[in-house]
Amino acid sequence: MRFCANAFAAVAAVTLFLSTSVAQSGTPVAYTDPDTDITFDTWTVSETLSKGGFTFGIALPSDALTTDASEFIGYLLCSSQNTTSTGWCGVSLGGTMTNSLLLLAYPHGGSILTSFRYTTGYHMPDVYTGNAELTQISSTINATHYALIFRCSNCLQWTQGSASGNASTSTSPMNLGWAQAFPAPGNPSCPSDITIHYHDNGHNIWAATLKNAPNTSYTDWTAMAKTTVKGRCSTKTGSTTTATPASSGPVPAGATTTPK
Ligand SMILES: *[C@@H]1O[C@H](CO)[C@@H](O)[C@H](O)[C@H]1NC(C)=O
Ligand SMILES: *[C@@H]1O[C@H](CO)[C@@H](O)[C@H](O)[C@H]1NC(C)=O
Ligand SMILES: *[C@@H]1O[C@H](CO)[C@@H](O)[C@H](O)[C@H]1NC(C)=O
Ligand SMILES: *[C@@H]1O[C@H](CO)[C@@H](O)[C@H](O)[C@H]1NC(C)=O
């Protein structure tokens, strides 16, 4: 029963994705970021499928094609339309929106904020309660795009309540999904409190072939991941309310942070 329900959800998701746009190529394009010298396998969604375009990339530990990695270094290049529609974008590390670890990112106050999410249905995903961790290496924001390079630890195996899943780097291809929206999230200062609209700037699933992602410099690159950007979230402890600082650690190359 449970298997049937999950299988149906997966089929429904694929149908949903394919009905709205043409599946894009899973063939990766190597991209080396000039500031960090990190080389990624990248997959780009064209302007015609998502206004402003979208690119996702991953770098992996050197043995990732034979031994499943638990983490990766990610590259997200997403688009903003104008000063109000700064948008949000996201990736599904399992391909489908449901039953996969989801990562959302959006620009706010000069920083790029991120939120791990999980959902079993087609509605606003819940906050992910597993141990995935994101540390930023660089973030750049301009009028039309925001780009984030980050280390994603414990991101390729996930657990939410009694459900678990994984993305296997040793079994090519890897199913990934993307989504992008025009409106900025509501309640943007705290990533776990955001409200988001439907991804009205496109979404799709693709079977990503890995080629240039594993690299012997991977471990060295992880040392650049020093910044945790948490946003401003109020945590009520008894009668006192404390606000966590917007970010900790040194400001990464190219990042602009606005003192709050
Ligand atoms: C590993 O990364 C370096 C630096 O970005 C790059 O020059 C090299 O081509 C990469 N190796 C592979 C096998 O892609
Ligand atoms: C901003 O972009 C959105 C999405 O394309 C559009 O609906 C809105 O009219 C734009 N606003 C302005 C002020 O240009
Ligand atoms: C904004 O960033 C994007 C992506 O890095 C880049 O292609 C574009 O040229 C930048 N725009 C400006 C005005 O610098
Ligand atoms: C990944 O998921 C598959 C299928 O559910 C399972 O057989 C495998 O043991 C999982 N691998 C890890 C590392 O969790």
TrEMBL record:
This is Cellobiose dehydrogenase-like cytochrome domain-containing protein. Keywords: Signal. Residues 233-260 are annotated as: Disordered. It comes from the Eukaryota. InterPro entries: Cellobiose_DH-like_cyt (IPR015920), GMC_Oxidoreductase_CD (IPR053208). Residues 234-260 have a biased composition (Low complexity). Residues 31-219 form the Cellobiose dehydrogenase-like cytochrome domain. CDD domains: CDH_like_cytochrome. The keyword Cell inner membrane does not apply. Residues 1-23 form the signal peptide.
